[in-house]
Amino acid sequence: MKKFFFISILCVLAFYAPAQIKLLDLSVIPNVSTDSSSGTNIIMDVRFKVKNAAEAEKIIIWFGSQVNTNDVLNIEASIIQNGTEVLINYNGLSIPVRNYGAEIKVPLTVFQNSAYHYITLFAKKADGTESNRLSFIK
Prior knowledge:
- The chain is 15% helix and 53% strand.
- The chain is an alpha+beta fold.
- The protein has a single domain (20-137), classed as Immunoglobulin-like.
- A hairpin with an 8-residue loop joins strand 3 and strand 4.
- The longest helix is centred in the N-terminal third of the chain and has 15 residues, at 2-16.
- The radius of gyration is 19 Å and the shape is globular.
């Protein structure tokens, strides 16, 4: 009887626990193009999956020389909810999160592209708590 009561309490607590943001499957796809007027353009297509995206206030992407650093570039993309749709706003674009899948296109200079060795991705809630961190090694 005590076991049943204990398990029942755990189930109730788990049901009412706040949803945690979870990031998965980070991949980065570089897109390099050259034109005569602006030279070389580098767009990094940062793709990932996010569980409970509506709980987050922003997605943070750090390009750094070491893991968990932003000494090359610091990106903050805001998350908004439009009805039932969750959108990531960055660089004037609103990208929907579909089936947990999300992507952010980050423009880099040639210098930034050569200077970074790691990309760190995480989400932040309005209260400042952070999700898990994912790292990508160049």
